[in-house]
Design a protein that fits this description.
mainly alpha
Length: about 450
């Protein structure tokens, strides 16, 4: 294209931007403002002086709550007792109907069976069930050699014969121990450690209430689990026997209300005592141990501030260096104390408090019994002497602030055991009597049918 070879033409625009100078002539329509009348901005020092002083950590820390925990323990205790009484009444109607439909050992149909008759019927039925299982096992091993069959039968007898001979209270203790073992196995799973730490240990600073119950079944150490399960198996059976004896005494005073099994009473006692022991530990930390830690932090902060002021007044370099090192040491001490306060006494777990209740019931109910420790010395000692020594050790540990065991939980469980020994049988009888119409309404049809069949056959 040839037009691109033409020389460029300079274009000039005839219009120009108007040149106008800025005018600083004051406008008469606007008010004249003097510079002296403007408010002066406050200086930095004045702003700092007017600002409110922020509270320190020790001043701003809140009190550890206890109201929700108390309400949870009351609700949990009442709920466990009511449910346990209802299950006991259910078994009463169930086995009364069994005895009425098929009398055993000359039992009369026209009167309610006693507790011993109900337990005997349950023992006979359970033994027949184990014998039927053994007979079915033998029939399934007909093709096996005689040596193998003898070994299997011997193993079956060794496992289930102690289970048959044990009382129902001891079986419940074994069941509780199995639950504790399952929770301990959950602790062994690394992926669950964070969840177990949140849900199966009680931290008073967390504000949680349900951990008062879950921590009762939680053991992180195998040694802790072993000692508690051994103590539970040893004293749980004795405590269940004592509960039956106390209930028979109340039954003789108030009227016949047979108890077919003490296992639900024992389970309700275990849960209630565990909750109360955890609550005592929680309140002791919230109202005694934690305020002492905060007061200790305040005193450390005050002493560090005093040292800083003394070092600022000293002019020499050597004194300033020494004051700086002292201030650094005080800061490190305060930091260490703060971290200790954050960890100290925060998390508790274990069923020691509930077991202490059973130990105290056994000691009060069988004062002449003797116990043998699993640690030296191994010679037998009187049960009340041993329990008294343990309680004295817990009192000293609680007063001195020892952290090896939860001494407040032990003392709370012992106190609950003493209370239940004095008043537990009456409370249990009253709850069962109150729940008896409810249980008969829901589970009394079997008993009605048994009476109907008995009347028709007669």
């Amino acid at each position: 294209m040839l037009w691109t070879l033409r020389p460029l033409r300079t274009w000039t625009l005839p219009c120009r931007t108007p040149q106008r100078s800025f005018s600083f002539t004051p406008n008469t329509h606007l008010p004249r403002v003097l510079a002296d009348s403007l408010p002066k901005p406050p200086t930095f020092r004045e702003q700092v002086a007017k600002a409110k002083k922020l509270p320190s950590f020790t001043d701003a820390v809140r009190n550890v709550p206890i109201r929700n925990q108390i309400l949870f323990v009351i609700a949990g205790t009442v709920g466990s007792l009511v449910v346990g009484a209802h299950l006991t009444n259910y078994e009463l109607s169930k086995w009364w109907a069994y005895i009425a439909s098929s009398p055993q050992d000359g039992l009369l149909r026209n009167r309610p069976p006693t507790s011993e008759e109900l337990m005997r019927a349950k023992y006979v039925v359970f033994g027949r069930r184990l014998q039927g299982t053994l007979a079915a096992l033998k029939s399934s091993m007909e093709q096996l050699p005689e040596t193998v069959k003898a070994m299997v039968v011997w193993s079956y007898v060794q496992v289930f014969q102690p289970l048959l001979n044990a009382s129902e209270g001891k079986r419940m203790c074994w069941a509780i121990g199995a639950v504790n073992l399952a929770v301990w196995l959950a602790w062994r799973v690394p992926r669950w450690n964070a969840f177990m730490l949140r849900a199966f240990t009680h931290n008073p600073l967390s504000g949680k209430s349900y951990t008062l119950l879950t921590s009762t079944f939680s053991h992180e150490s195998i040694v802790h689990l072993g000692f508690n399960c051994l103590a539970l198996a040893s004293f749980g059976g004795a405590a269940s026997q004592q509960l039956m004896l106390l209930y028979k005494k109340v039954e003789g005073e108030q009227g016949l209300l047979s108890e077919p099994t003490p296992k639900w009473h024992l389970l309700a006692l275990f849960i209630s005592a565990g909750l109360f022991a955890s609550l005592v530990s929680h309140i002791a930390y919230a109202r005694w141990q934690y305020p002492r830690l905060i007061a200790r932090l305040k005193s450390m902060n005050a002493s560090s501030s005093l040292r800083s002021g003394t070092s600022a007044a000293a002019p020499s370099a050597a004194t300033t260096s020494a004051a700086a090192s002292a201030s650094t040491a005080a800061s490190e001490t305060a930091l260490t104390a703060a971290s200790t306060a954050a960890r100290e006494g925060q998390r508790s777990l274990g069923s020691s408090g509930a077991i202490y209740a059973m130990v105290v019931i056994s000691a009060l109910g069988f004062p002449d019994a003797e116990i043998t420790l699993v640690i030296p010395p191994w010679y037998p000692i009187n049960i009340q002497t041993g329990v008294g020594a343990l309680l004295a050790l817990d009192l000293i540990g609680a007063w001195r602030g020892w952290k090896i065991f939860d001494h407040f939980a032990h003392l709370g469980g012992a106190a609950f055991g003493a209370f239940w020994y004095a008043y537990g049988a009456k409370i249990w009888y009253e709850i069962r009597a109150w729940d008896l119409p409810v249980a008969y309404f829901f589970h009394g049809h079997n008993l009605k049918n048994a009476f109907k069949r008995s009347s028709e056959s007669s």
